[in-house]
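pasting for ref
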Amino acid sequence: MAKKHVTFRLTRQILKHIPGTRIQSMGYNPVRKRLYLISDGSIASFSSAKLKGRGHLTNRSFDYSAFTPKREFEGLAMIKKAMPICL
């Protein structure tokens, strides 16, 4: 990830358990180097380094946060020094 472009690479990692019923959005924190998966009122995150090669994610790789919002999350954006803002 650079200032003017992003490079994507296919990984063969399959997620059996995801937050919510469908992943609605993804976010990336460049300071913590974590990828965030957003769904309904849930956020799951994991280290992007775990996706190198074929992927080596385990259940312990994830941090989960479940919320009880009156509205569901649509996305996550990082601003100044990677402070997250829920959309």
